[in-house]
Design a protein that fits this description.
It is a single chain. The chain is an alpha/beta fold. It has two domains: 65 residues; 193 residues, Rossmann fold (3-Layer(aba) Sandwich). 41% of the residues lie in helices and 21% in strands. Strands 5-4-3-6-9-11-10 form a seven-stranded mixed sheet, with helices on both faces. A two-stranded antiparallel sheet has the order 1-2. Helix 1 runs parallel beside helix 4. The radius of gyration is 21 Å and the shape is elongated.
Length: 288
């Protein structure tokens, strides 16, 4: 193998040496914790307390392979095939985006504003199912449905639902067709649709551009609100009067999104900033 990894301490030293120059020190430390926990099953506090704990050669070989993939730019979430989202374990594949911390904030907003909620929730463009599953776990009286155009995304979302022991219905549906009209009337619609303009690609990291599904990220510069309009069109028929809608949005289009929700007769519209102070979410109540 050419590398002598026998203990937890050896893993940390190996990763620190190999990943230097690719990541900052604090990132290497965080990656080491994730890799050790995932590969060996030893949790962070244990592995910090037991640096001399021995690891198997199978585990050592896997860690070396993970390190090679990290150096290629591949995100750790895709290498390991899973991530953590709002205390849920979410498996990923090449057809699903890596869930962002901002999207956890969206889930947190919905949960805090709807304690004890017992109605229907629809997550449009569910991807890995992370939003739908986190809401189902934390609003246990609700009935949650997730839709996506990708068959591969639906399959992984269903697996994630079973993994987190919640009942969520997942349906293959295209937001630009009448597919969603088969969904039962819903009380809350949530969506984190594609909202990054093509012109913004130049500012993005290569690990996102090279590995994450572009169809789940990007919209044309000429029509950046195309998905929001389509969802609001569906909501005309499936969102009940006084139903709520929650979107994650591009920070550049907060005011345009307010105009759009007003056009579709929503009231109590508010933009909510994320932890970085960016206009990241919008919510409203359907008037009719």
């Amino acid at each position: 193998m050419g590398v002598n990894i026998q203990t937890i301490k050896d893993i940390r030293l190996y990763l620190a040496k190999e990943l230097k120059g690719n990541f900052q020190d604090h990132e290497i430390s965080a990656l080491s914790n994730i890799i050790i926990k995932t590969v060996t099953g030893i949790k962070r506090l244990q592995n910090l307390a037991l640096p001399e704990h021995h690891v198997t050669q199978i585990h050592a070989r896997r860690i070396i392979n993970i390190c090679k993939e990290l150096k290629s730019g591949k995100p750790i979430q895709y290498i390991l095939g899973e991530t953590s989202f709002y205390n849920c374990v979410i498996k990923l594949n090449e057809e699903t985006l890596i869930p962002r911390p901002e999207t956890e904030e969206l889930v947190d907003l919905i949960i805090k504003k709807n304690r004890g909620f017992t109605g229907n929730i629809l997550d449009v463009g569910t991807g890995s199912g992370c939003i739908a599953i986190a809401l189902a776990v934390n609003l246990p009286g609700s009935s949650v449905t997730g839709t996506d155009i990708s068959e591969g995304a639906i399959k992984i979302a269903e697996e994630n639902s079973r993994l987190n022991n919640v009942s969520v219905s997942f349906l293959k549906a295209d937001v630009f067709s009448s597919d969603h009209l088969t969904v039962a009337e819903t009380d809350i619609i949530v969506s984190n649709p594609p909202y990054v303009r093509d012109l913004e690609k130049q500012f993005m990291n290569s690990n996102v551009l090279d590995f994450e599904p572009h169809t789940a990220l990007f919209v044309p510069d000429s029509d950046p609100l195309v998905f929001y309009r389509a969802i609001l069109e569906q909501a005309v028929k499936i969102l009940v009067p006084k139903g709520k809608i929650y979107f994650e949005i591009n920070e550049a289009f907060g005011l345009l999104m307010v105009d759009l929700l007003e056009f579709y007769k929503y009231s109590d519209i508010s933009i909510v900033k994320d932890i970085n102070g960016k206009a990241r979410f919008i919510k409203g109540i359907k008037n009719v």
